Every structure is written in structure tokens, then in C-alpha cells.
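JOB MANIFEST
job_type = single_chain_structure
chain_count = 1
residues = 313
[input]
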Amino acid sequence: MLAPWAADLRDVRETHLGDHEGALVTGTAYGRMDGVRAAGWTVMTEQTLIDPRRMDVMWVLLAFVGTSLVTRMITRYIRHRSHRAGNSPAPVPARRQVIKDVRLAGIHVHHQVWGILLVLLVGLLAFGFSPEGTARSLLAAAFGIGAALALDEFAMWLHLDDVYWSAEGRKSISALMVAAAICAVVLVGANPLGIGDDTDGLATPWAAAIVLVNLALVAVCIWKGKLLLGLIGLFFPFLAFVGAWRLAKPESPWGKRRYAPGSAKLDRSRQRFGERYELRWRRVHDVLGGAPSISGDAIDAVPNEASPGESSV
């Protein structure tokens, strides 16, 4: 004889697997499914939390955010210890330190190297073996880890210099934020440009026109200096429209070409995206990644921090 909660669980599973797939599970059924964790997780996941087709995106996002936070914690700790050791008469030998920079054959190997290698390995395994189930989820998490390690030093890609702790290094935090935002909107079900969606009988030319208009709005957003809003606008066209309609940043290509010196639009743009705007974003960047401690002049004077005879990768 089935226990009461088991009978209810069987009814829920029959509802889910039968002709009425997608039916909502009641709160009472949730309460009585606590005894069967695996089955309860399956029903809850498929019915109310995340589209099963996007579960791998969830693992990517969790691994990406977690790795980004841990990496910044480690690098800030290493910087703090380095500054403290510089003022200490007896610094701790490097061989006794558990958390430290990785050096191979005298070369400082930045963590972006490990991230790039991990992403390449994940891609090779995914294409070569097309894993499913747990193996696919593990690859998704590994991809998120590799992407976070690589993008955490995005500014170094861009400048081809060790600008990690300079003001230019804030671009790495912006890259992490953009990547996490895109991953999040994909997770919640947004589809860039409606790719693969059912157009509900909408004629193909009209669907193509809508896609082209959305792409044009995204391009205008980016041209106006609103990269994050433009990329998210791929998934939410209304945001692309808002970003394209509102003022451009004064230093953006749009602002330089279309806002004449002394014009009212240029004055409004400078007021909106002035020092207060920049200060707010700098504070966000510094909270997430740590405040810069190296000036641009110092970087130009000292190309890398490696000791004599060593090179930095």
C-alpha cells in the first residue's frame, strides 16, 4: 500500500508526463514531495524554476560568478600581502605561501592563460564527444570557470600590458559584468532576436524586418557608448530602443560626430554622463574588483612587475 505522499507524487508525475504536460503543481503537492528529493527537484525545475533546456546555462552562470568572486578575492589578497611585505623587515619566503602567483621557468603565468586553455579544452570535448547529462553539466561549469579566469584580465588583452591594478583595469570588471548579464538573460529565457522562436504565423519578411530594426537599434546603442545596454537589447528590444533614443555619451563616436561644440545636446550629455556618473560607476567597479593602485605613468615606466631576468605572460 502506498503512503499518502507517494500516492500524491504518483498523481503529480502522471500529470506531468501525460497529455497535460506543463500543468502547474500545487503548493500542497510540493509540501508532500519532500520525501522524494530527486523526483521533487525534477518537477519543480521543469515546472516553475528553469527551463530544462537552459540548465547548462545555470551551471555556466554559477561557475562564472563564483570564480570571478574567488579570483578577485585571491588577487586582492596577494596585492595586500605584497604591500605589507614591502614595509616588513622580514617578508615571508614565497615557498611558504600557499596563495601566490604561479611561475613556470621564471615566467609569471597570469590566470587568463589557464582560463583560455580551459575554454579551449571544454570546446574540444563538447564537439568531440557531445556529452549529455552530468558530463554536459560539468563541462558547462568548467566553461564558466575558464571564461571567468580569462575575462578577469580582459583589460590586459585590450592594452597588451599589465594594467590589472590600474584605472584601465576597470575594463575587466566591465567585461565580467557584461558577460554575467548576458548569461543571466539567456537563463531566464530571453532569446536574442527571437532566433528559433515560433513567429505565430508572422510572415518571414516581416520577421526579418523586425530583426533588422532590432540590430539597428543595438548598433546605435553601442555607437552612443552604451555597450552593456546594447548587448542586453539583443534580448530585450525595448531596452535597445530606449538606449538608442536617449542621449549619447559625449566621448562616444555618436557624440563626437553629431553633437556640435557648444550645442545644447552636448551640454546635456556632459551633465548626464559627467563626473557624478563616472564616480558612481568607478565605485561599483572598485567594490567588485578592488581600487586601482598603479597609475598609468607607473605602468609606462615599469612595463611589468617581474624581477630582472624574468618575463611576464
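[summary]
The chain has a mean pLDDT of 77.
The first helix runs from residue 4 to 17.
exit_status = 0
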